[in-house]
Design a protein that fits this description.
The chain has 503 residues and is mostly beta strands. It has 5 domains: 93 residues, no CATH class; 46 residues, no CATH class; 64 residues, Seminal Fluid Protein  PDC-109 (Domain B) (Ribbon); 182 residues, no CATH class; 33 residues, no CATH class. Helix content is 12%, strand content 33%. It has 7 helices and 30 strands. The strands form 7 sheets. Strands 16, 17, 20, 21, 22, 26, 27, 28 and 29 form a 9-stranded antiparallel β-sheet that branches. Strands 18, 19, 23, 24 and 25 form a 5-stranded antiparallel β-sheet that branches. About 4% of the residues have low confidence.
């Protein structure tokens, strides 16, 4: 066994600030040159997903080094704010520095001053050189949450938090593990697209336009594809639709596409807190899911229109019993195709939530629609995704009114992803359209790969470009004259540029 010796530094893990009182692993009175404990965080701090959390025993932890870095960043950002007021002098607009105005909108903070033409006189803005770094962690984070984070950091540096909020620190030691490989060269499949002037041999199989062909001659090299003389057509389908919904024993999963249907509309409370639902004001206040129904992402390619559609949303009790809800189109406005689960007029849920534990989304990606706006059968890809959900109520101030809102909380990972310890949500494939059997074909006789002996040791094909001609102009006429000024002896002249004068 090989012994690997690695020298590391512990400076990043130790405290060198004499003005703080931290809890360290040694429980010493003074924490200078000691290793502080890490910090366990909970909601709502964990909702700030851009913070550098680490997972320790299913808990989210901030390391001491990152706490120090984030605390210092917040301090720098808040103390580097420069406020400006737009005034007009002799018909010329100008930004002038001022004190912080009351009720300032902190969405109007920039790295540098914007153009005066973009704002009206009387406007207030601010600049901050740390804004870009600050937004990496705290963009769109409510001020209330940031205040909680600042208070948590302040108590952490004073060792004024619960002992259960500490986590034992640890050190990540990167190890270099070397390996070797043998390059077998480019791998080919048995089905290759036909190319002009390429040499083919008997029994070679190619794909051309929309069909497969097998070479019928001993050696074939053509500028134009000749089906009748050199190639025999193989009758395989080039467009198939495969129904996967009944293949229980061999289910197919892929990365989720559900975020495509997330609404761009977001609802904030009067306190600036992002709500977990969307509020639609039409005949009262309606609370609905953030996912939209109807046709979205409409695009036209070669006079064929494709769309994406959230086909159905169903609630389940964990026993494979599902209740579908329909989205509602307000005033024939396609921008308001939302699933209204809760009505706040009576604070009652639209459905019976007593036994609901799951929500199932069925959606279509890249389906074709005809001139009548109807979906073409057997087109696109169909997905099914199940996620855990729960119903909750919370008090929000919205439009100046303090009210209790009931809403559906949906977990970010699918049930399949949680069961298989995956970090991304995955959805089940129910059906798919295979438009080109060159990429995806059903006949397994073509799905093997092999290495051509002629390509062993190669990983790419080098293309020789034509030799480039460089016109030096009048410089070449005097080149030999200039050379005479660069030598000091006849012996140097003989050796210069490998005896350019042929002496």
């Amino acid at each position: 066994m090989e012994v690997v010796t690695k020298k590391i530094t512990l400076n990043d893990f130790k405290n060198y600030d004499p003005n703080v009182k931290l809890k360290c692993i040694n429980d010493c009175e003074y924490c200078w040159n000691e290793m502080p404990m890490d910090l366990i965080v909970t909601e709502p701090i964990t909702s700030v997903t851009k913070l550098p959390f680490v997972e320790v025993d299913d808990k989210k932890v901030l390391r001491y080094y990152n706490i120090k870095k984030l605390s210092y960043l917040i301090h720098l950002y808040e103390n580097s704010m420069i406020f400006y007021h737009l005034i007009k002098i002799k018909n010329n607009k100008k930004w002038v520095k001022c004190e912080e105005p009351s009720g300032f909108d902190y969405n109007l903070v920039f790295i540098k001053l914007p153009e005066v033409s973009e704002y009206d006189c009387g406007a207030y803005i601010a600049t901050n050189k740390y804004k870009e770094e600050y937004d990496k962690y705290f963009k769109d984070v409510p001020e209330k949450t940031i205040d909680l984070l600042k208070n948590l950091f302040e108590n952490y540096f004073k060792n004024n938090i619960s002992p259960t909020s500490y986590s034992n620190p640890f050190i990540n030691v990167p190890l270099f593990i070397s390996t070797s490989l043998n390059d077998c060269g480019d791998m080919l499949n048995e089905l290759q697209r036909w190319e002009k002037n390429k040499i083919y041999y008997k029994s070679d199989i190619v794909f051309h336009i929309d069909s497969y062909y097998v070479c019928d001659g001993a050696i074939v090299k053509e500028k134009k594809f000749n089906e009748t003389e050199s190639w025999i057509r193989l009758d395989f389908p080039t467009s198939i639709n495969k129904d996967l919904s009944n293949e229980v024993d061999s289910e197919y999963y892929t990365e989720s596409k559900l975020d495509i249907f997330l609404s761009q509309r977001k609802t904030y409370s009067d306190d600036g807190e992002l709500m977990e639902f969307v509020v639609i004001k039409y005949n009262g206040i309606n609370v609905c899911l953030r996912y939209k129904g109807g046709y979205i992402n409409r695009r036209t390619i070669n006079n064929i229109t494709y769309i994406d559609k959230l086909q159905s949303v169903e609630f389940g009790n964990g026993e494979n019993v599902w209740t579908e809800i329909k989205y509602e189109n307000i005033s024939n406005n396609s921008d308001l195709n939302y699933y209204y689960v809760i009505y706040t007029d009576t604070l009652g849920f639209k459905i019976d939530i007593s036994k609901i534990t799951e929500i199932k989304f069925t959606y279509l990606i890249g389906v074709q629609i005809d001139s009548n706006e109807q979906i073409v059968k057997d087109s696109g890809v169909k997905y099914e995704e199940i996620r855990k959900c729960s119903f909750d109520k919370n008090d929000y101030i919205f439009d100046g009114i303090n009210n209790t809102y009931g809403f559906c909380k949906i977990e970010p990972l699918s049930v399949y992803s949680k069961q298989n310890n995956l970090k991304k949500p995955y959805a089940r494939l129910l059906s798919l359209k295979l438009d080109d059997n060159y990429d995806k074909f059903s006949n397994t006789v073509f799905n093997t790969s092999f290495s051509d002996d002629r390509l062993l040791g190669t990983t790419y094909v080098d293309v020789d470009l034509p030799r480039i001609s460089v016109d030096r102009g009048t410089y070449t006429a005097m080149e030999r004259h200039y050379i005479l000024g660069e030598v000091n002896s006849f012996d140097d002249l003989e050796k210069y540029r490998n005896n350019i004068f042929k002496l």
